C-alpha cells in the first residue's frame, strides 16, 4: 500500500485559536486524502469527515493532538492499540486461537492497529538483526522483494569500528524504509554468557561495553533513515532452551553491571524508538511484567521515553498453554510498563477489555501506555504517508556488507606468513563442504531472505584463483545434495527447526596426497550454524566432529609432507573449540557468518587486498568446561530446565578467565594482522581523578603493509569494599588505516561511572578511593602500555532504588 505526502505548514498555536474562513476541497485524483483550508493554512482531513479535528490540526503540538485522541477513545479502541494485530502463520504455533493476519508488508512480523476515525494508520514491524526479513515473493506479483543479508552480530561487533557500524545501520534503514516498514526488530544485544546459546550469532559480545557501543552505532545508523529500531531482548535472555518459561536467578549486581549495562549505553547514546522485553522470568517474574526492569530502571533511572513491546507471545507459559486457552497477565504487563503486547491474540484483548471496564486496569495506566504508542505512530514513515519505492539500494548495500564482513574477520593464526596468499597462477585445493555450501547467517528471526549468497568457491573464482577442478567437481554435487537434504529435514521438523552440520565428503589418503602434489595451498572451511528456538551442544558442534578431525589430519599430513600450507576458514556464528587442532594448520581465519557477500569478503582478506583488523569480542576457551557458566547451563532439571542460576555472578568471559588465571585458546580482544604495531607514549591527563580523565597513546605501523589496529583500555580498580574482576574493558578505539611507518595518537576518556562497581548494600554505583591501574593493549592479555591514577575519596556516582529482589538464595563465585 503506497501513500503520498501532502505538505502542511506546521505552526504551533493555542488550542483556543479561532478556526475561521474554513473551506473544504478534494485533492487531485492521484491523491488520497481531502484537504481543509483555514486562513490560508492547509490540513489533511485524514478521517475524511469534512471538518478539522484537533488531532488533524498541525498547528497544535503532537502532545495536544494525542491528548485529543485519547480523550475520544473508547476502552475497546485503547485495547485494540495496546495489543498487536497478529501475525501471518500464527496458527502454526498457537493453533486456531491465534490471530493470523497478513499485514501491509508480506512476511513482516506484525504491527499496530489502524483507527480510521482518528486518521491513525496501521504501522509495520519486521525482523531482524542481520537485515530486513520480509517475504521475497508475493501472490499475483511478478516482482521480487529481496533484502540484503548483512554479517551476523558477532561479525559486526568484531570490527570494533563504530563509524562502519553506523554505515551498516544506514544501509539496513534504507531497506526498512523503502520496503514500507516502520520498525526493524533489532539489534539484539544479549550477553554471550555461554558459548552454546543458539542465538549468540545475533548478539555481540561477552562484554557489555562492546555490546552497547555496537548496538548504539547500528541504531543511530538505522534511525538516521527515519525508521525505528527495537533493541532486544530486555533482559537476561541468555539461552534458547525453554526460553518462554525459564526462570533466571541473578544477583542485582550482575544484572546491573553485565546484563543491563549494554542496554543502558544504547538507550542513552541512540534513543531507540522501541525496546523488546524478553521471554524469560527474572528472579521469578516475567520480564514483560517486571516493573523494576521496565519502569524503575528503564524509564525512571535511564530516562527512556519510547515504547516497550513484548517478544512474540512474551508472558505465556509456552505455546501449548496458548492452545489450551491460557493467557499472559495482561494487567501486570501494562502496569509494569510493557506498552504493546505482540503479536496479539483474541484472549489477551478479551481479558484486557474486561480489566479496563472493571477498573482492574486503571485508565491512568492504559492512557500512559496508549500515549506512548501514539507518540511512536506519529514518528513513523507510514503516518507521514511516505511513498516508499519497494526499490532499496541493494547494490550499494551489498558493497557495505562486503566491507563490513572483511573488517569483522579475525586472523586467529598466521604461521610463517601463510596468508596472504595472492598467487593466482598456482593451483589451490578447496576442501570442506561449507566452502561450497556457504553459511550466510543463523536461522529464525535473525535470518534474511536474500537473493543469493556468494560461496567461498564463487568468491575465489571471482578473484581469479586457480582452483583444483577435480575437487570442485566432486564437492559441488555433494554440497548441493546435502543442502537439499538439510532443507527437507528442517521442513519436516517445523517452523523453528534447528540447522544441522552438513556431512563432510569422504576422501582417501592417496587422493589427498595427489592434491598436495599438484596444489600450492589447501583452504579448508569448517562450518557451524545455529538458530532461534534451541541451544547448541558440545559434541559435534562446539567440539569438532570425528570426521572433521580426520579430514584436517589427512590434509595437514599430506600438504605438510610436500612443504605446503594449510589454511582453515571458520564459517561459524559463535565460539567453537580450537585448542585441540590449531597446531595442525598454518593459518586460521575466523570469517564468522559474514552475510551474502561472504565469499568475496574472504577472498579480499586471503588475497591481501584487505588486511584483517577484526578482534574477538568473546573468549575462545581451551575446552567447554572452562566456561564459568558450563555447570549452570542451560539449567535444572537437566532434561527439562525450569530454573537457571547465574552463580558465576559478574565473572563472565574474560572477567573470569583473567581473574582466575584460566588460560584460553584465544583471549578476548585478540586478533592478528598482516602487519605489526607498536604502542608508545601513554599519557594520562591527570594523576588524580576529578570529573573525567583522558588517556592518550600513540600507535605506529611497524610492518610492511597498511593496516588498522584496535586499541583497548582496561581498568584495574581497588577492591576493598567488594570483589572485582582483575580488569575490565572501559574504552576502545580503532585507528584509521595506517601506512607502513605511519603513527596515530588516540585519546580515550574515562567517566566516573567507568570507575564504579554496583554495591548492593548501598544500592549505589561506587568508585572506591585508592589507586587505579590503566592497561592499554592489543587484547585483554596483550597489554602494551600502563599508567595509573588515584581517587582521593570514595565517589558515589549514582544512587538507585533497590530492585530485582532474589526469589532464591545462592552463593556467587568470588576470587
Architecture overview:
There is one protein chain. The chain is globular and about 85 Å long. Helix 2 (75-82) packs across helix 12. Strands 4-5-6-7-9-12 form a 6-stranded mixed sheet. The protein is built from 23 helices and 29 strands. Helices cover 29% and strands 18% of the residues. A hairpin with a 2-residue loop joins strand 10 and strand 11 (285-286). By secondary structure, the protein is of the alpha/beta class.
Break the fold down into its secondary structure elements and pairings:
Elements: E1 22-25, E2 35-38, E3 41-44, H1 62-72, H2 75-82, H3 91-94, E4 110-112, E5 123-127, H4 153-157, H5 162-178, E6 183-185, H6 208-223, E7 228-234, E8 247-249, H7 252-259, H8 261-270, E9 274-277, E10 281-282, E11 285-286, H9 291-301, E12 307-310, H10 319-323, H11 330-336, H12 346-358, H13 363-379, H14 394-408, E13 410-414, E14 427-431, H15 433-436, H16 456-462, E15 466-467, H17 469-493, H18 509-518, E16 521-527, H19 538-542, H20 546-561, E17 565-571, E18 587-590, H21 598-606, E19 643-645, H22 654-659, E20 677-684, E21 693-701, E22 710-716, E23 728-734, E24 743-750, H23 752-755, E25 757-759, E26 764-767, E27 770-777, E28 783-791, E29 795-799
Helix pairs in contact: 1-13, 2-12, 2-13, 5-6, 5-14, 6-8, 14-21, 16-21, 18-20
